[in-house]
Design goal:
The complex is a heterotrimer of chains A (about 180), B (about 300) and C (about 550). By secondary structure, chain A is an alpha+beta fold. Helix content of chain A is about 15%, strand content about 15%. Chain A has a 3-stranded antiparallel sheet with strand order 2-3-5. Chain A has a two-stranded antiparallel sheet with strand order 1-4. In chain A, strands 6-7 form a two-stranded antiparallel ribbon. In chain A, strand 2 and strand 3 form a beta hairpin. Chain B has about 300 residues and is mainly alpha-helical. In chain B, about 75% of the residues lie in helices and about 0% in strands. In chain B, helix 1 packs across helix 10 and helix 4 runs antiparallel to helix 5. The radius of gyration of chain B is 19 Å and the shape is globular. Chain B starts with a helix and ends with a helix. Chain C is an alpha+beta fold. In chain C, the strands form 5 sheets. A 5-stranded mixed sheet of chain C has the order 1-2-5-4-3. In chain C, strand 4 and strand 5 form a beta hairpin. The chains are: A alpha+beta (about 180), B mainly alpha (about 300), C alpha+beta (about 550).
Chain lengths: ~180, ~300, ~550
Amino acid sequence: MWLTSKIKQVLMVLKPGVVTLNYPFVPRPAPEDFRGAPYWDHTKCVGCGGCANHCPARTIMVRDICQEIRVMMYDGSRCTYCGRCADVCPEDAITMTKNYELATGDKNDITETMELFMLTCQRCGRCYEMETGNAVDRMDLKGYRYDNLEARTVIRKTSDQFDLKLLQETAQFKRPEKI
Amino acid sequence: MDIAYSLINVMVFILCAPLFDGIMRKITARVQSRQGPPVVQPYYDLLKLLGKNTVNSADNWSFKLAPLAAFASIIAVVFVIPFAFRQNFAGRYADIITVVYLLTLGGVSVLLGALASKNTFAMIGASREMVTMIMVEPVLAMTLILGAVKYKSLALQSAMYSVTGFGYSVSIVAMMAVYLLALQAFVGKQPFDISEAEIEILEGPFIEYSGPNYALFKYYMMMKQMFYAFLFVAVFLPFAETGYYAADMAIQLAEMLLVFVVIALIGSTNPRLRIDQAVKYYAVLIIISICAVGLSVRGF
Amino acid sequence: MNTIESVAQTLKSKFGDAVKGTETPDANRLMVDVDGAKLTEVSREIMSLGARYMVSIGYDNIDRDSTLRLIHTYAFDKGKFAVILRTGAPVDNPVLGSITPDTPSAGWSEREYMDLLGFKFEGHPKPKKLITADDWPDGIYPLRKEVPYNLVPPAAEDVAYQLDEAPAGTTTIPIGPFHSSLHEPCHWALYVDGETIKGCDYRGFMTHRGIEKLCQTQLSYNEIPFVAERICGICGSVHACAYSQAVEMAVGMKIPRRAEFIRTIMLEIERLHSHLLWLGVAGHLIGFDTVFMQAWRVREQIMWFCEKLTGNRKTYGMIIIGGVRRDITPELRSEMEKILSNVEGETMTIQKSIIGDTAIHRRTKNVGCITKEETIKWSLVGPVARARGVDIDVRRDHPYAAYDEVKFDVPVVDSCDVWGTVLVRVLEIYESIKIIRQCLEKMPQGEILLEAPEALPAMKHAVTMVEAPRGESTHYVITGEENRPERWRVRAPTYPNLQGVPAMLLNNQFADFPIILGSIDPCFSCTDRVAVVDVKSGSRNMVGKRELEELSRKYKK
């Protein structure tokens, strides 16, 4: 029994042969529909911020630095590549690329920042609502929002009218630290 | 001229030991459907380790001394052995008892290093190593004594190459079987890598070692493997003696390569045994090897 | 046999007024509200009816009626239903009777709420710290609502967990927090006599980052499946599925049938690759790396298929509330069938080469033995229980997704040792393949995602069980306001199984520790409920080489 098992174990390899790849030297392309690094198309983006509101890892920050300019920042260092942002984007401005070789020593290599020129709605400032009208999926990102881009933190301070005081306050934001 | 043989022995062993290890790793990789590291990887490993800082984590001299002692003892063994059928200068002053003692000294150095490092896992490793040593050393001694009994002399050359003079007898064949069964324990490969057991006790005796100290231990292990492969080839397969030094050496190295292939195949198809199971196994081997020596005394 | 009605009747007649009310929001769930004073008796009665204890859930209800609430859940596997026992205690005197003396597997759950909510349990045999860090200050209970999710209390020096007293004549071997047989940080202190294990103590939850608190305070309903998936690297879909099902059950949502079939397929794919992974790891743990490599080679094609189907090798992100995100196209279906027959054949080859190997038998037979009675006592689940002759499987006993429509066997072995768990897992691989094939065949056409209703009603309770590769995962959801759950409790299969490990280790050899622990396929991060939470912790001290050497010498003694 023992010997036959040993022979079988050695012979087991014959059919598959060597299967490990010479990977970093021979690239292995990702399949279609792969969820790699997300890419924002700034020509399509309307700045609704739906992606920011749906990102489970909170990697997408929105900061209104004045009434007309909205800065959106994607911080790839925390991204889990779930592809939720691409799902919810009403303009299909976000695509999940096939790029997966993202290891880097510099956070900025995988950070994407967009400055969007926004028009002001006469009634409410910003009034995007997402197509899906249910509570579970609604993005509820109305008005102006002030996340901190230096600390890369979603603070979720919002206001109906542009608020300079909030903007300054949020610039001071520090993450909690151990004393 | 004799001294040249000794020096060449040491050179060949130092140069080839990592290569054989690399070949074993490659074979293991193939059995596991992997490409495996390049054959020269053990050289890279050793060079890299030798280039690192020395960390004396135990802060005592025996911790530093142990790897040197282990490496020195295996070099001494290699210095005296009649590699490629050539008796050498040092071999005249050494006999089989010297070889057994020197090999034991290597094992004791590992124990010394382990105990000096005061690590819990090293202690467990040391106790396992000790048990293994006590149980396996007799098989080694019996192998050499067998030849000594035939020639009625403790001289190395005659004891090792007894088959050339007396041919294969019942006792030699029995001893050969025992040696093959103990081979994995001699070289510390699966199923008998119990004292290192990476998953349980994290390389046991060597856990506190790093850098050049660890490199010396690694080298010691590789050379020890090569010595045991050589011993098998010398004692049990001493045919095809051509009379030309280079040819003899090439033939013995080729035979040793075969032994390494066997070691790699057995090693890659067996799980590690527990120490209590291994001890029972060794006990059987010791009894058979003593029987074999007994038979040779009776002339079989 | 017990039915929901009979259990409700028995409890009402035995305890009269102590049972404040019962309801059956779902055909298979019985909720019982009891008086806190009678909790232990009621629990004992339920257990004596043949229930299996699952998990306890505690939550903060202070702003509604100034009580802390506690829920015990039980499964009746023969009767195919679950009982939810709800009670509470006032916040100024949160004392309840401990059910641990009767039900040892409740020990951790109760210790958890001592740490997280400030409950006190009378009669608990081991009321030690379980979850919070050694230097976590007393009096801060992280699951209470007044405590913010990103609170970082001051660190303290020189506080250490006090391990249990070692039995006389033994030495202590520390395993962990980092050890090559543990794949994640946790600490075991093994008390050995020579090489024989005479006892142990466990200190885990080293990767506890408060994922439940995070989801209850920060995320919204449909973000949680993605976080839930990251509770575990291996059985991600299980957690996402269990959570989504719990929410759907709580609010009475019925998802499209095709989505249920796709969920079933995802869960079975996960079981397939998880069992192959385990087989490899088990080989590695006994020092047999060829099994390790070969099993993982077979597994790799499943991973590559998943990459095509879901967009990633792991953390599929397929399951959200209301259905699934991606459909299985006809091309993917035919490819899947091909891969299934490959995997089946190659697993068969591996099985044949190891099933008769006496070298493997020596390391696995009669190792890590516990009896069937003890298995039931400790409420062990999954392959660990099935290898000890306990015939439970959530897929058959409490069917969910599309499991009611497929036929499969539940392999049960009664060898009571590690070898049994190897057998059960290998046999389950074939059952999984069978299930996926049936699913592909029977899958109806149609929608895969249902739009959720406008607003989910608050304060609805639901508990769901999902059979993960390692055993039963239980999720408890209480729906809340603000588009997120009020309470979400995850109990991974390792949670009960790990509590049974000390019994398995007793009187075994130290060398068998890795494979015994490995036989339950422990997932410490599931148990600890890890998540990457954005909390910057700890100041960093630079330690020089010299100091490091001295430190390591100092601590080695």
